[in-house]
Amino acid sequence: MAKRVFDQFCSRERKLTFYVRLTQISLLILFFGLWETASRLQWIDGLLFSSPSRVVGLLIEKIADGTMLIHTWVTVWETVIGFLLGTVLGTSIAALIWFSPFLSRVLDPYIVVLNSLPKVALGPLFIVALGPGMMSIIATTLSITVIITILVIYNSFREVDPNFIKVVQIFGGNRRTVFRKVVLPASYPTIVSTLKVNVGLSWVGVIVGEYLVSKQGLGYLIIYGFQVFNFTLVIGSLFIIAIAATMMYQGVAYLEGKLVGRKQ
Questions:
Q1: What is the 3-state secondary structure (H, E, C) of 216-234?
Q2: What is the mean pLDDT of residues 44-67?
Q3: Residue 224 contacts by C-beta under 8 Å, 6 or more apart in sequence?
Q4: DSSP string, 66-111
Q5: Range with the largest mean pLDDT of 185-189, 197-201, 241-245
Q6: If you ran DSSP here, which 8-state letter would residue 187 be given?
Q7: Nearest to 182 by CA among 210, 196, 153, 162
Q8: What's the CA gap between 188 and 74, in Å, rounded?
Q9: Do residues 209 and 141 lie in contact, with contact meaning Cβ atoms separated by under 8 Å?
C-alpha cells in the first residue's frame, strides 16, 4: 500500500516536472519568436532592439574569429577570482568577529555604514589607488560581496542553538572547539546560500568594473556596443553573461546539494 502511494506520488512529480519544463521552453520559444517577428515586421526598431537572428549571427561571427572567447574568458576569470576571494574573506572576517565579542562591538557601526554605502561609488577610488586594470575590477567586486557575506554569515553564527554550545562547553570544549564542532557545521546551509548570492553580486561587480576601466571583457563589449550604437553586440554580450552566470549558479547549486545533502 505504502509503495503504491509512493509510486503514485513519484509519477505525479515526474508529470509536474515535465509540464513545468515544457511550459518554460514554450515561453522561451514564444518570446524569441515574437521578438524576431516584431523586428522583421518593424513593430519595433530593429536598430535599437535587434533580433534573435542578428544576435546569433553576430555571436557566431565573434566566436569564429576568437574575439568573443577572449572577452568571455577575461570576464569569467575576474568573476571567479572576485567570487572566491569575496567568499573566503567574508567568511574569515565573520569567524574572526565571532571569536572576539570586543571586535564585534567595535566593527558593528563600520559594517553597517559600509553596507549602506553604494559600493559602485568607490570605483574611482580603486582606479586611483590600484590603477586602471584587473586589480580595480576585483576590488570593486570585493567591495560588493565581502560586506554582505560578513553580515549574513556572522548572523548565522550567532543564531546557532545555544543548547548545542552549552553541551560542548560542559564537556570541556573551549571556544575554538565550539566553533569547529557546532557553529561552523550548523552554518553550512547559510554559507552555501551566501555562495549563491555572491555569484550574482560578483557578476555585478565585475561588469561595473569593466564599465569603468577595462579594455577587455563582456562589460567592455557592452559599453563599446553602446558607444558605437551596435545594440546587437550589447544584447549578444548580455546573452553570454546570462549563460555564464547560470552555469556558475548551477555549479554552486550542485555544491549545495552535495554539502547540505551529505550533512543531512
A1: CCHHHHHHHHHHCCCHHHH
A2: 90
A3: 230, 233
A4: THHHHHHHHHHHHHHHHHHHHHHHHHHHHHHHHH-HHHHHHHHHHH
A5: 241-245
A6: T
A7: 162
A8: 31
A9: yes
Orientation of helix 67-99 relative to helix 101-116, angle to 10°: 140
Identity of the amino acid at 33: G
- Of 189, 119, 105, 171, the C-alpha closest to 148 is 119
Distance CA 219, CA 201 (A): 14
Query: What separation in angstroms does the CA of 216 have from each of 12, 75, 226, 239?
Result: 49, 8, 15, 17
CA distance 14 to 11: 5
Interacting residues of 184 by C-beta distance below 8 A, sequence separation 6+: 95
User: For 130-168, how does the pLDDT look when each residue is reduced to its tens digit (9 = 90+)?
Assistant: 888 888 899 989 988 998 899 999 989 988 888 888 888
Q: Which residue has the cell 547559510?
A: 190
Model-level pTM? Answer: 0.82
Reading the block at residue 205, the C-alpha cell is 561587480
Q: What sections of the chain are H helices per DSSP?
A: 2-40, 46-49, 52-64, 67-99, 101-116, 123-130, 134-158, 162-170, 175-178, 184-186, 188-212, 218-227, 231-263
| Mean pLDDT comparison of 26-35, 167-176, 180-189, 220-229, highest-scoring range | 26-35
Predicted pLDDT of residue 76: 93
Asked if the model's pLDDT at residue 264 lies above 80, the reply is: no
